[in-house]
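Lecture notes, structural biology module. Today: joint structure prediction for complexes of two components.
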Amino acid sequence: MNREVMAKRARAIRRQLTKKRISCLIVTRPANVTYATGFLGDDSWAVVTHNQVYLLTDSRYTEQAQAECPSCRIIERAGPMAEAVAELAPKLKSVRTITVEKSTSVADFEQLKRAVKARLRTSANIIETTRLVKDESEIVAVKSAASIATKALGQTLSYIKPGVSESELSGMLDFQIRKLGARNSFETIVAFGANASRPHHQPGAKKLKKEDTILIDFGAKYRGYCSDITRCFTVGTPTPFFKKVFDVVEQAQAAAIKKIRAGARLAEIDSAARETIAKTDLPVYGHGTGHGFGLEIHESPFLKAGGKGKLEAGQVITIEPGVYIPGKLGVRIEDDILVTETGRRILTRGCPHSPLLANA
Amino acid sequence: MNREVMAKRARAIRRQLTKKRISCLIVTRPANVTYATGFLGDDSWAVVTHNQVYLLTDSRYTEQAQAECPSCRIIERAGPMAEAVAELAPKLKSVRTITVEKSTSVADFEQLKRAVKARLRTSANIIETTRLVKDESEIVAVKSAASIATKALGQTLSYIKPGVSESELSGMLDFQIRKLGARNSFETIVAFGANASRPHHQPGAKKLKKEDTILIDFGAKYRGYCSDITRCFTVGTPTPFFKKVFDVVEQAQAAAIKKIRAGARLAEIDSAARETIAKTDLPVYGHGTGHGFGLEIHESPFLKAGGKGKLEAGQVITIEPGVYIPGKLGVRIEDDILVTETGRRILTRGCPHSPLLANA
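The predicted structure, tokenised, for the full assembly:
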């Protein structure tokens, strides 16, 4: 990651540290480690002080860390993480108290307590707060992830034919994502017919029948950044009921998207979608209307009923209302949206959207 | 999961609870939740007492939990997990102290402390210890995972041709795994040429050249259980040096496998592989010789230099020595092995193994 971007991030993190009177933060949550250092590997921690960002990794990743983290001091540890921190701690001038991220496990925290001589405390949401608004390099990465997902679904459509199983179709979509040089941002959901009424359905052996509807919820992860899209299709002519549900969900999504702009209240966006459905005889969904994403697939802000707070320019969020009728059908439509000063930019506009496919 | 199997597991867990004087264990680690309850979904905790196993889940998973966990009391929570535990706690007779798994985050532990009136403490490796030796239903699942991985690689071989990228080849292998109704047990590693010298290489845009060697490290996850295989191939005629390295690694693996039986010392198996390589002019690998696996891809026992302990019948382990020459090549061969009273059973014997492919 470019030195200028990383320097700007480090300044933003340090502003949070100053605000919370933290002189040294041990960063253990993988997405936060990536954010603070640029490192895309695993099993590594970061230590952020007012003078330096350290990456604590091991020999498997030293080469990768040197390439990805030109702004960091890279420390190759051979033993446990807690010992590497203990060796580093005395060298950190003017650090009396070390703060550890609250997402750290009790086991790791206790090991640190035993190994490190300094006073330890915990704190939550330091780096998460700086991650709320994306910087330019992050927006570029999210746009790439969205465009790869869009392209991958386009290349999978011809594969949606009666007889294909949910598991096979999810595998073909994932293959297209890999072919485009990316990974999954989460395990792809493919649900046929009534299976789509379960928002977290796991793709199984069920084979597509001509009259089934199809729900696909998936995302690509590129250079560490996610995208998140849901689309619904039919191979046969859609039933009037499916068509009605699809139209209502589309209208609910459009109503919410229209409200997006810097300063918009999260609850107002959520209710725009919910109220569109509430006006019909269809059931209102139980999940949130959308969520932020970036290095992780679910990040703040969360758009839900009664949610507090406002949108800021530079946030990227999903809008994903749905209608679920157990035993019958499920329809959800989800797009990725960049919040701007004056409105919004839909990053997944090009993703195939028409419910009827021509492969019957 | 079948009631009899679950009852046996619950007895084994309770023997550990008695040993450590624990009357109630909050299980938060996902693999441990699956082990104690049979549940294969996410975002759920288990509570194990001497009378009952509770699964704390939410409405997204209630239907799945009812199907997968006939022996559990299923509690559908609407609010935070800590509150669900707080509501349950007073109903647990004779429970004065609640023990929480040490892998729990500090944030979750603090929330529990605030919400629950009982005394809280933490403990490590209670359920991990019972997971060390696999029961019959687990061995059946591991065998299925091994045979799916074996089949998937067989179906991917014809795809290994000059011009294919690492990322694309990994995607095709993952697709075959999905087509067989399984998932990945970890992100597939495909490394061409010198990339194979990095044991944790991430598949990239590099395209296969005729003279490149190929390393593939992958596994299938079926009904929650993993397999883990590494194979090396060439499309062109292997160079004499590659052939030499391949033969040495194969011999090292065979030497370690030969030592496997109930009662064998972990260190003795590790050194059998390491010494075979040390006798040559090739460098000895820095990683372990193998590891247990099951619900997770890396479990105890860990076979490494100086490792303490012995194998037990019913454990499943990998044996995976390698030779890595940075900038030049990497060869690792990994199989999955069931430890028996009198010896071993190789579960991945049928997986394609010859270095030369016929697709040049």
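Point to remember: Chain B has a mean pLDDT of 95.
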